[in-house]
Structure formats: C-alpha cells, structure tokens
C-alpha cells in the first residue's frame, strides 16, 4: 500500500508517544507491543525472562521511570519481540506457541523456523547498543491522510520510528520523515529495489505461513525463489543484510490479531477478505478514548 492509499487513522500517539497507522490494524498493534517492550517497563526486574542477546541492553532500559499506559492492555509478562535461533523452542513452549500453527505459533513449522533463524546473525533489538533509557516511539502508516501534513520533521524527532510493509519514504520525506528504525513486513510486502535500502533499518518479518520461512531461508542462502504458495509475488532478492533482519515472535501475532481483533485461524489468499474494517477502527478509537494512543493528524 502506498502513501496515496486511504485510511482514517494514520497518525496517533501511544501513551503520549506518537503513532501512525496503516489500515491493517494488526500491524499497529504488533508495533505497539514492541513499543511497550522498548519502553523498558517489562524489563524492570530480574524475574522477567530475557534472551542472552537482550541481557546486555537491560541496564540501559530499566532506568525508565514512565509506565506506558498501553501496558495494562498488553497483559503479558516475560516477552521479547524477536525469536533467537538458540532458544526459540523453549520460548514457544513458555508462551504456548508450540500448541498453535502459523501464524499464531510454531507448531508443525519448527524445522522451517530453525532453517530461517540459522541464516540470521542477530536477534537483538537493534544492530548497535543504545544508552537511551526511555525511547519515544512513532509508528508511521501508509495512508493518504499523511499527504500535505508536513509531519516529516516531527516523525524524525522520535527515537524509534516503525513503518509498515513497503510504505515509501523516498519522495515523501516532508510528510513521512526520513528515518526508519523498524520496518514490519512479510515476503509479499518487503522492498526489493535497492533504492529503498537503509543501513539503519531493522526489518521485522511477520510470518503467516511456513512458506514465508522457507522463502527467507532461500533468499538469504542465494537460492532460487519460487513464487508458489504466496498470495502475491514475493521479493526475489534481498536488499537488506542478514544482521538487519528479525523474525517476530508469533505470540505477539496471536495477542494482536487473534485475541484482540479476532482474526480467523486460517487466512484466505486475498488479504482483505478477513478484515472487519469497521470493527478494527472502533477498536482503535477505544484506544484513543482511553488515552492509550493519540491521533497526530
């Protein structure tokens, strides 16, 4: 979806922190979960589980004194956003993801997860250490409501900038900003043109089917990519380096898409067939009414 697409909710703020949304509300909720984790409140005591790659960052994050309002909606403990090759099975068992098939768990796809994760060099939050204790986060949507709002400077002023799919930056900087910290994507929506490459971006792959993991393993291994099994032609070349890529924990997908939005357990090939846009917009309005999110536009 491009910047010219339609959306009623494209600029909101989570817990006093700005957030912008794409029509696919699942993505903003997944990003909001990441926001809660980044904010550091879940990492404040040693009883919370952290993978080895995250431990070194805990001290920088646990000094955050602000409690995110969104946390009361999350109702989760001991969670980390990205899967690590060394312990994804143990993490899945802890969250119950071993009892769900994709996109809500790893059941019957363990080998695909293992193959894909073996190609990734990092499962940490970022590719560089950061001493910022409380990170201000913005999620940028791809809707036309952003056009001519000149929010680019405002967006770039935040510590963490999360974007959706292949929403463009080049050519729209004045309205959408220039920086990207995280970009949430799936094989059918990831950039393949090197012109969009950003060395400072971490790409978060949201896995919907085993074929997505096989695609990631093949593309990072330089193998021939088959478009069979995708609802739209996936990227046939990877413009990002392997250390820039992460795989989102399916437990976050389950929380946002299944528990909150009541998405089905099986997904049709056409993306919008399972969306109740009205219900999704009402859900977001509730978040705004509770001051969990604030509309920037």
Share of residues in strands? 5-15%
- Strands side by side in the biggest sheet: 3-4-5-6-7
End-to-end span in angstroms?
19 Å
Residue ranges: pLDDT <50 for 5 or more in a row?
A: 1-9, 11-24, 39-63
Fraction of residues in helix: 25-40%
Strand-pairing-aware structural class: alpha/beta
From N to C, what is the helix and strand string?
A: EEHHHHHEHEHEEHEHHE
Second rung of CATH, namely the architecture: Alpha-Beta Complex
CATH class: Alpha Beta
Number of strands: 8
**CATH H-level homologous superfamily name:** Glycosyl transferase family 29
Count of spatially separate domains: 1
Total helical segments: 10
From the alpha-carbon coordinates, what is the Rg to the nearest angstrom?
Answer: 18 Å
Main beta sheet strand tally, sense and closure: 5 strands, parallel
Structural shape:
globular
Per the CATH scheme, the topology name is sialyltransferase cstii, chain A
What number is the mean pLDDT? 77
Explain how this protein is built:
- The chain is α/β, with parallel strands linked by helices and 297 residues long.
- It has one domain (12-295): Alpha-Beta Complex (sialyltransferase cstii, chain A), CATH 3.90.1480.20.
- Helices cover 30% and strands 10% of the residues.
- The protein is built from ten helices and eight strands.
- It has helices at 25-38, 52-61, 71-74, 88-95, 110-118, 152-156, 173-176, 210-220, 250-260, 277-289, and strands spanning 12-14, 17-19, 137-140, 160-164, 182-185, 202-205, 245-247, 293-295.
- It has a five-stranded parallel β-sheet, covered by helices on one side.
- Helix 1 crosses helix 9 and helix 5 packs parallel to helix 8.
